Amino acid sequence: MIQIKQLTKTFKNTKGLDNINATVESGEMIALIGSSGSGKSTLMRCISGLMVCDPGSCGQIEVLSHIMQRDGRLSANARKVRTEVGVIFQQFNLVDRLSVMTNVLMGALGRVPTWRAVSNLFPPTERRLAMESLARVGMADKAWQRASTLSGGQQQRVAIARALTQRARVLLADEPIASLDPESSRIVMDILAQIHREDKITIVVSLHQVEYAISYCPRTIALRQGRIVYDGPSSALTPSFLKEIYGSETEELFSPAMDKATRHQSPLHRKSATAPAAA
Fold it and tell me: For residue 125, how many other CB atoms are within 10 A of its CB?
């Protein structure tokens, strides 16, 4: 579903990404971890085509068997490929003054004429899909509220519903729980896991908290200073191994609310809910 070859991205004199090579298979749910400045968001933006790699670096990204970008340029097919790639951002990216339903319907923009979108005259089929998507994330009862009235966790669930309405085959979630409290974080991660399980959507989720990577994603790619330092089973991410690859940065990879005793217990042994809350 995603193939990354020799990807390098430089900001002034600093390499944000340094010769990244990775493959994501169809139906995988993969965590991307790393401390601040490790390159997680830069990599996610490059995969989605929102940022291009260094010209002359021979970097290339394929998504859904189509070239997204090569050698610092987006391909002619990039816009078409993007219609099947849903992106969930840390800051939700909802339009506050619009209703929840209208925000979710924005996921259908790639399928409806511009005049319908501008006039908010989406076809009944798209409206039904949007409501079904809201129901799946436990937000159907908020469909006609302004987005600005929702809590952070609720807004992120609406953003996920928007990606479902897009009918995305690949879902990129860039630190979707970084701004949320622990309970909202758990709900959002449960929803993503449920979508992955039921729809077989390929999901890449960047996370600052390693315990969520271990709990929800069978495979983890770990970045440090723009380089991949680990790519393998999440179950191998023990505190001692993380200390080995991250050194003093290890403390950044755990939630502040997680005490040291709990950190030494694999989150795989702690059950998480499998269905989103109703509100």
Answer: 11
Contact 86, 174 (CB under 8 A): no
Q: What is the DSSP string of 143-211?
A: TTSBGGGS-HHHHHHHHHHHHHHTT-SEEEEESTTTTS-HHHHHHHHHHHHHHHHHH--EEEEEES-HH
Mind listing the pLDDT tens digit for each residue in 45-59? Answer: 999 999 999 998 889
Convert the pLDDT of each residue in 58-83 to its tens digit.
899 999 999 999 999 999 989 889 99
The phi and psi torsions of 7 (rounded to 5 degrees) equal -85, 120
Give this prediction's pTM: 0.86
Alpha-carbon torsion angle 136, 28, 234, 62, nearest 10: -120
Handedness of CA 203, 91, 78, 74 (dihedral sign): negative
DSSP 48: T
Q: Which residue has the tokens 């390693």?
A: 210
